[in-house]
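Hi W., the zinc ion complex you wanted:
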Amino acid sequence: MDRNLVEQIERRRASIIGFLASLVRAESSNPPGDTRKVADLIASRLREASVDFQVLADEPRKPNVIARLGSGHPELLFTTHMDTVPAGNPKAWRHEPFSAEVVGTRMHGRGSADAKASLAGMVAALEVLRQALPLRGTLTLTAVSDEEVGGVKGTEYLVDRGLLQPDQVVVGEITENRLATAEKGVLWLRITTHGRAAHASTPWEGSNAISHMLRVLSAIEQRVGTRLRTLTHPLVPPPSLSIGTIRGGVATNVVPDWCEVTIDRRTLPNERIPEAVAEVERVIADLQREDAGIQADVEVLQAGPPIETRHDAPLVRTAQAVARELDLSTELVGYHQASDGRFFAERGTPTLLFGPGDPELAHTPNESVDVNEVVAAAKFYALLGLRTLSDVGERR
Ligand SMILES: [Zn+2]
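Structure:
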């Protein structure tokens, strides 16, 4: 049965690569994020394979495809995205970014790896698993829009509407077909200091919001920055804090009554977002105890929790067994970008990232993918689906 599944994928090699090429040619740059052509291609492929699916959209140009095999729990979710980052300057590309040109074993083009390669692999897995019915539980595939700009119209929309309640999640992302179980969190903060305006010739009559901000920033960099330099995690790069923007003041000869900065803070998988916010607030509160003149507020602009899936989770163990069988790496790694997996990990759902493509090439001109890696990923998804959702999966 299992060998059969792998062989079926192998037999579909040309069809999988051809499907990936059509996905790349269906431009879906975000912004503007119009993924309708990609969704149509997936829909016709699913229809041909008699896989049930629905299309849900908060915004018509940004549809989300949800396909299901089987019913009930356990539910394994395969999720990946249809949108891509824009191609940028076409002159920087050696191959036309939406031509899906294949040279040797590499297919070139925007989205060829991130994440249309995963998409092609996951759809192929559903096609062959459709024949392996009945499954124990449900295998769900979501091909979402909007991932590259935060997921509001994509995964967040589906999760908020209660449409996805998976027990285990595999995110199709560019991990070079390695098993990633950890991802850093992202926190964007805005700090605003308030002062009192005055003529710059008599600054003592005012209260300078920019001067206050300088003290706030140097205290944050010193206290938070110093502590972060002592933290490490085995699977992801160190945590970080970076001041991204600063604005304030109206004229050189006016004492500013307002200053604003935004800060990008990346948390380790084992840090908690609320604690990262509280730490900044504590630094400011301590400064205010020294100088009651400092007025500052902290606002959370965006928070994406980290992912950390236990290595003894059944999903991870099954994935390692499948990887071993397919001669893929069984080493657990970290994912260095941010993914939609956070929407599930946040709720305690075991989440794994796996997919073809080198993250170094994604989001850059000359993105490309090795087509053999795409076929290998399809085999991995298919076998993982089978092992997780059949009685064979019980045997360890
Ligand atoms: Zn991606």
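The chain has two domains: 2-183+306-394, 185-304.

W.
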